[in-house]
Amino acid sequence: MNLKILQKKSLGRETEAMLLSVEDGEVYQVSICITKLEKPYYANQLYRIFATLDEAQEFYEDLCEMREQDE
Known about the structure:
Blueprint: E1 3-10, E2 15-22, E3 27-34, E4 45-50, H1 53-64
Antiparallel strand pairs: 1-2, 2-3, 3-4
């Protein structure tokens, strides 16, 4: 599987959002990545797959408006 990072933005101290092209533009993925994990069994990524770049871009931009909450 070939992944290409199209855009990347920090959402807070430990999270970032990424817009990726999968398999040379066949599908697009928007991911939320946790950059610092305290326990090795926690998932480090939540993602959603899109058929078109326009749909993925819109979701990515909405996601980037979010911010990490302080505890």
